[in-house]
Amino acid sequence: MALHLHNTLSRKVEPFEPLDPDGSVGMYCCGPTVHDFAHIGNFRTFVFADLVRRYLEFRGYDVNHVMNITDVEDKIIRRVREQNTTLTEYTAQYEDAFFADLKVLNCTEAHHIPKATDHIPEMIDIISKLMERGIAYQASDQSIYFSIENYQGCGCQYGRLVKLNFEEMRQGERVSDDEYEKESVADFALWKARTEEDGEVYWPSPWGEGRPGWHIECSAMSMKLLGTSFDLHLGGEDLAFPHHEDEIAQSEGATGKPFVKYWLHGAHLLVEGKKMSKSLGNFFTLRDLIEKGYDGREVRQLMISAHYRETFNFTMAGLDGAHTAMARIDECVAKLRDAKADAGDVTAEPSAEVIEKFTAALDDDLNVSSAWGVVFDWVRDCNRRLAENQMDAATAAAELAAWERIDTVLGVGKAEEEAPKELTALLEERAEARAAKDFARADAIRDELAEKGWAIEDTAKGAKLKRL
Length: 468
Ligand code: AMP
Ligand code: ZN
Hints:
15 strands; binds zinc ion; Rossmann fold; Four Helix Bundle (Hemerythrin (Met), subunit A); 3 domains; alpha/beta; 5-stranded mixed beta sheet; 4-stranded parallel beta sheet
């Protein structure tokens, strides 16, 4: 089976066939709005995007991954004003924190990370095209709005990702806020004329000083880096309307070309069955969980344990479950490494069976539950063969190679820890002491190593250090 993905445009699971048959894939994921520390709900979406990127690469595609930084929009401007600071100073702290958190979650860095504030000319260019085509207009507040009526008049369809009830459409209504009521069909702001509340956050434009609307930012950055038509656009489900719907309208309205082939939306994360909120006390950033003693691997494992289109109920018990799951994998992998030790550094072909099953699971619209099932069956089978002494070094090497391949997608594995140089020097000293029959010194070194958390393991190839 080839890779299949659910496309919000068709509301169906479709075979994934990129626009370019040469195997390159353009993928855009709406990035964070850097107005605060990102919460674990946000990270569910970013880990989902990372899974898509890693799996496409596992399937041999050459992915060009773009994730933007929304560093100017209503919420940010409000905070800049409240804190009497500058836009750059305010957003930089949350941007840095966001990338540090992504690292903790072992998310692969996007190839391009454009910032909205660096792409104002590209936004103005799209708005100018929409003005030329009569799809945008300047209103009495001097702001530029997207005209849904004129867009439809050009034979275009508004309401592609969500079904909209045009009967209830309030004619002539417009919104200037970046985030507006769900499914209210209204002309939205492309360029917002400068107001007093904007402080120093404004740029010149052919229509006067002002700043871009949020939606135009993503159209400009994605098309600049991936072209007018590209393969994949991702985000959380709340972005489908109006953000993504407006992105389609602005982009197709300006270029006259299809914007994106596949739209993927990740469902939301709830905490203990409820929408996260500070007042309910169920609001967590990644930092909160790290402070509680969990690690990034556990959070990541939990986040990719459920299908991306299912609402995910995050619980502390679930995180403890992830801890146990990771320990089972770590233990099995450590035993395989031991069993493989005698095969030396030969590069083994990954054992095919587990890889085939894992691929079949993820080809089915990233069915992670089934993929984890394959992984844990494999762990059980390896443990049994290890216990029954049916795992020779070459087989262990093949199983380990399979795990390493699978983990290029899951990204939860723990690298084999190498002992620091001063400890391997002690190990050599112990070998010399033993050769000189100075067993007291050899034992003292063993104790010293144990105190530092390392055990000596005698193998056919000599003594090795292993984490206790
Ligand atoms: P923002 O920084 O608010 O622009 O959001 C960044 C990403 O997080 C977007 O793709 C949102 O759709 C997503 N998101 C927001 N809240 C949640 C949540 N509770 N669960 C999953 N994703 C979310
Ligand atoms: Zn976006």
